[in-house]
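Handover notes (outgoing to incoming on-call)

Open items:
1. Beta-glucuronidase: sequence verified, structure written out, both below. Nothing else pending on this one.
2. Nothing else urgent.
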Amino acid sequence: MLKPTSTSTRELVSLDGVWRFAIDSRLPDQPWHGPLDTPLEAAVPASYNDLFADPEIRDHVGWVYYQREVRVPRGWGEDETLLRFDAATHAARVYVDDRLVGEHIGGYTPFDVNLTGIVPAGGSFRLTVAVSGELTNETVPPGKIEVGIDGRRRQTYFHDFYNYAGLARSVWLYSRPRTHVEDVTVVTGFAGTAGSVDYRIVTSGAIDVRVRLADARGNIVAEATGPVGTLTVADVVLWRPGAAYLYDLTVEAVSDGVVVDSYSLPVGVRTVEVRGHEFLINDEPFYFTGFGKHEDSPVRGKGHDDAFMVHDFQLMEWIGANSFRTSHYPYAEEVLEFADRHGIVVIDETAAVGLNMGVVGGMSGTPPFPTFSEQYANAATQEAHAQHLRELIARDKNHPCVVMWCIANEPASNEEGALEYFEPLVTLTRELDPTRPVTYSLVMFATFQNDKIIDLFDVVSMNRYYGWYIATADLALAEMYLQGDIQGWIDRTGKPIMMTEYGADTQPGVHSIWDAAWTEEYQRDYLAMNHRVFDRFPQFVGEQVWNFADFATSNGIHRVEGNKKGIFTRDRKPKTAAHSLRRRWLGLDGRKPGTTD
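Beta-glucuronidase structure tokens:
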């Protein structure tokens, strides 16, 4: 799905701003009619949960409504008119006046609604968007809704971040020609000093296609015609981690010599490969340093914010991070575009977090019933997961910063049924994009002895908390556990190994001269212990600390104002560990510890 953009043939109107807002108490399937009679207004983009002082809104389980008036520009009469929602968490119904014109399920991927023939150019309409934050065992991520003895509906979910809901990303009204470029796929490579850009163009009808590639100064370096082909770039400048270089690909749909549609996108020429126990970018070994992150900030919740984005990337540059994982859902596309421009490497993750009934059993890992069963992760769940993969890869396939797909976080890969659930999803991922490695993040219950699906994947991505959840405040014992765990995965798989989560909750300002949990010194020493172990293994290809910044969670008694494993506070102040991480990572320069150029 092409992101809407303004070109010589397309126009774009932002619908961001303040919308009328109300929660809904009607029957779930009752259609919407009429203007909202409400004094409330909500910001878009933003999650709605923290905007208001009313706990009924924050704790609401069900549909909410956003509404505003929209006018279609009068010059769009010959074109198609579409609405674009960058995300609606987790489901949406879209109404033009009182007419239902579109629906979507899935809270982190975009969708379009075609208004052509419904609203005329120059006309106005009342746009109402119903959004539901409900999660069930057949959604991604999953959850369940229970009705208490007081009659209230309550949402339970099995992931450790707050279930923010609403229109958390931008909304657009845009035009495109009736005959237009529908989709673009690029795959890049190089041999010696010559680069290659394989392209595949889909158009809305039979029409001529021509493409051209320009360098960063605007000079044309390659041209071709036809919907499928290869552009050869002499003296190519590669996209590299920490040194981004982007070409500009322009695609034109042409009829009788006249350009009827034009679309451009940035292209970074680079390759990604897993070879033995190495992760290679441009045929060079790459060592990940960075974080699992969250789209999370005060007041906005998961609402995208350009100022927070810029500041977060500045902090990552300051600390020496070269990468992050989009835990635990696809981030706003603006984040990936920024990473493209600044050479930050991204592991792109689906919203499949919580596929693990062992989490309900606590650290025992004993599930109340099997995860992969009709009661929880069933065929409908698998299809929702597959659709999410289709939409994610369709959106992000052309971003050079994305080097690996992570199709699930901490699933019950140690349980019966895991292989049958995941094998078709891995096959689908490779069919949709055969160019990138595929991984999943391993829960602690899944060991090198009992995991059932690792053979399907390219990289072993471990989430491990020795010294925190296990061997708490005993770093000597934790070091022994971690050493044996990594060695076991190396012996079993022969694949590259990386840590996608390791961390310790830390309350800013709490100090001790001993190994005391929650202190700033313990977080620093906990990380240092992990790093000593990582550096012993040449098969190790990366370390991503959990988490970049403190973030909001559900109301668990083990959380005080959220998860405090951040290296930065929720308002982005550094903890003590930030400075020790900075010293380590700035000295690595993307290489495995102990290696040289």
